[in-house]
Design brief:
This protein is an alpha/beta fold. The protein contains 6 helices and 8 strands, in the order E-E-H-E-H-E-H-E-H-E-E-H-E-H. The protein starts with 5 loop residues before the first strand and ends with a helix. About 45% of the residues are buried. This is Alpha/beta hydrolase.
């Protein structure tokens, strides 16, 4: 992501998981305490999705700018992460392993944490969030971009979840997101002219999330 991104391998349920860690400037330069921790999940690995996807990186940059310690990871079979794609099941276990690792190295004070995902990553994270809440350790907030509601059974999410979608998304039609969000009375933030990968709209994505954090 930048010159200070740390990439390394950790142990996962079926082998090594490749992760990338970014620290807020104030923490890296002055040792200041971060606001919290954040985990970012990338789009579908069988369609070229990686932790270096531009939307996943935008989510990471935005959260680093909000003073969170941010960790991304590659799903099974991507980059140096071992294992085979498991249609989102084993990927949940992997993200929980990444979350545990992040808490161990930066969460000694019980810092709040954020889960942010793009496309397939929203499906996986929705169930990770559900499992963490059931375990008594709920996320502070969720950020879903291009929510994969047309192809996957995305779990229900808290009402303060930030849901962002492009009105010209032909990968995940916006109506499917409305259909998922409506029973939850969950607002959807629509970016006009944006397609699934938010080409030339990433600056708007970043601005929307940053402004929503002030609410």
């Amino acid at each position: 992501m930048n010159a200070y991104t740390q990439k390394y391998l950790i142990d996962g349920p079926v082998g090594k998981i490749e992760v990338a860690l970014d620290l807020p400037d104030a923490m890296r330069e002055h040792g200041a305490a971060p606001r919290g921790l954040a985990l970012v999940a990338h789009p579908h690995p069988l369609f070229g999705g990686t932790m270096d996807n531009k939307v996943a990186q935008t989510l990471a940059r935005t959260l680093v700018g909000l003073d969170y310690v941010v960790m991304r990871s590659n799903f099974r079979g991507v980059g140096q992460t071992e294992g085979v794609h498991d249609e989102g099941r084993g990927e949940q276990d992997d993200l929980l392993a990444v979350w545990t690792h992040l808490r161990e190295i930066h969460g000694a004070e019980g810092r709040p944490f954020v889960l942010a995902g793009f496309s397939f990553g929203t499906f996986v994270l929705s169930h990770v969030a559900e499992r963490l809440a059931q375990a008594g350790t709920p996320a502070q907030r969720l950020v879903f971009v291009g929510t994969a509601a047309s192809n996957w059974q995305v779990a229900n999410v808290p009402q303060d979840t930030i849901v962002i979608h492009g009105n010209e998304d032909d990968t995940v039609p916006i109506q499917s997101v409305y259909d998922w969000a409506a029973p939850q009375e969950l607002p959807v933030i629509v970016i006009p002219g944006a397609e699934h990968f938010f080409h030339r709209k990433l600056h708007i994505l970043r601005r929307v999330i940053t402004e929503a954090w002030r609410v």
